[in-house]
Amino acid sequence: MTVTWNDSVPIYRQLHERVVAMILDGALNEGDPLPSVRQVAADFSINPLTVSKAYQELVDEQLVEKRRGLGMFVIDGAREALLKSERERFLREEWPIVLARLQRLGLDLKTLMRDLPEGGNAKETP
C-alpha cells in the first residue's frame, strides 16, 4: 500500500484522521481492533512512536481503548460521538465558507437540489 503524506501536517495527525475516517465510514466498527503499532509502522514506513502518538490521541478522545496485552479497540459509541463532533465542526468551520461561496455564485438550496440527479452527483451541463 502506497501512502502520500501531506508535508504541512504532522504524520501522526494524518494517521489520526485516517482512523477517524475509517470509523466514520464503517471500515472500523465498535469493538474492532486497530492494527498494531508495529504493523502500521511497517506498512507505512513510519516510526512506531508516530503511530503511538496518533493512537494515544484517539485514546485521549475516548474513541479507542487500550486492552492490556490485546491492543487497541474502538469503543462503543465512538462513531456516534465522532458524527456529532464532526457535524458540529462542519457547521462551525466549513459551512460558513460553503454558504458564502453559494451566495457569491447566486445559488440557493432549491437550485442545488433541482440540479442533483437521484444518485446525488451534480448533473453535467451539455
Could you give a quick summary of the protein structure above?
A hairpin with a 3-residue loop joins strand 1 and strand 2 (71-74). The N and C termini lie far apart (38 Å).
Characterization of this structure:
It is a single chain. With 126 residues, the protein is mainly alpha-helical. 56% of the residues lie in helices and 6% in strands. The chain is built from five helices and two strands. It has helices at 11-25, 37-44, 48-60, 78-105, 109-115, and strands spanning 64-67, 71-74. The protein has a two-stranded antiparallel sheet. Strand 1 and strand 2 (71-74) form a beta hairpin. The longest helix has 28 residues, at 78-105. The N and C termini lie far apart (38 Å).
Helix/strand layout:
Elements: H1 11-25, H2 37-44, H3 48-60, E1 64-67, E2 71-74, H4 78-105, H5 109-115
Antiparallel strand pairs: 1-2
* SS-derived structural category: mainly alpha
How many strand elements? 2
Classify the helix fraction into a percent range. 55-70%
Order of helices and strands: HHHEEHH
pLDDT < 50 runs, ≥5 residues: none
**What average pLDDT do the residues reach?**
90
**Global outline:** elongated
Widest sheet: strand order? 1-2
Approximate strand percentage:
5-15%
